[in-house]
Amino acid sequence: MKSISYRELKKSEISESLFANFNRYQNVKKCWRKENGEWILKDIAFTEQWSSDEYKVLIECLQNTVKTGGTVFGAFSDNVLVGFASIESQLWGSQKEYIQLSSIHTSYECRGMGIGKKLFSLASTKAKEMGAKKLYISAHSSEESQAFYKALGCVEALEYNKKLVDEEPYDCQLEYRLLI
């Protein structure tokens, strides 16, 4: 694979053709669940493979992110999208210190190459520029996803976003303190 380039995406670029070669596949074996105040790794197995309908919803969400002042980053190899991340524009929380990292994904065949880590770094830098002190992540509870976030220094969020918890009750609510 050639070198990876990264850049902010314009709303007009976020389309079905952008995701034509993107592979959101994950074979999940274990997931984290909070039971009686303790985090437990449980045998919960399923395969996640986004459908064309899920990509259509994703495209609408990412376009809305840009339209409302947020940012979407793309990672490209030979002009083909291999990763993306998005942050929303609204500061929230009791101290107005959180900005949501609403998505971060690397195409299946490109995982383990540092793309996600670089996208996370770009999102963190942008969030600081927008006045945030913490990234908020409603993150997939799979063992692999949680290992990724933990390796970056994410911890359980001090404040939970009720709307996001209601939308995805099995997600792990995480935060990442932005170094000022």
UniProtKB/TrEMBL annotation:
InterPro entries: Acyl_CoA_acyltransferase, GNAT_dom. GO terms for molecular function: acyltransferase activity, transferring groups other than amino-acyl groups. CDD domains: NAT_SF. SUPFAM superfamilies: Acyl-CoA N-acyltransferases (Nat). It holds the Pfam family Acetyltransf_1. Coiled coil: none annotated. Keywords: Transferase. It comes from the Bacteria. Residues 17-175 form the N-acetyltransferase domain. This is Acetyltransferase (GNAT) family protein. It comes from Sedimentibacter saalensis.
